[in-house]
Write a structure and sequence with these properties.
Layout lengths: L25 H20 L3 H4 L4 H10 L1 H28 L1
Helix pairs in contact: 1-3, 1-4, 3-4
């Protein structure tokens, strides 16, 4: 078996400069969402037990790593939050 030494065929992922989730950990996403919305509103927006009943970052991570559909919803809400913050920041800078 011959190993390739060509650097272009390496298994490392390419840089993703336009992907806002690139380089952000799931823990960072959950922490940011909890800080921005609070656990109560987060539980209303994504009604899963780990956000409603005795919420914590650790229990949320454990659940989200095992449940792809819930992780997708959390990532989607995080992207929405980023867009919303960007819009409100842009409108704040225009009004001053």
């Amino acid at each position: 078996m011959k190993l390739s030494t060509d650097p272009s065929s390496s298994q490392t992922p390419a840089a993703q400069p336009r992907n806002p989730l690139h380089g952000v950990t799931l823990e960072g996403i959950v922490t940011a969402l909890a800080a921005h919305y609070g656990w109560a509103e987060l539980g209303q927006r994504i009604p899963v037990r780990c956000f409603i009943s005795d919420p914590s970052v650790a229990s949320s991570l454990k659940f989200l790593r095992k449940t792809p559909w819930a992780r997708e919803k959390v990532e989607g809400l995080y992207l929405f939050m980023l867009r919303d913050l960007k819009r409100s920041g842009a409108s704040q800078s225009r009004s001053t």
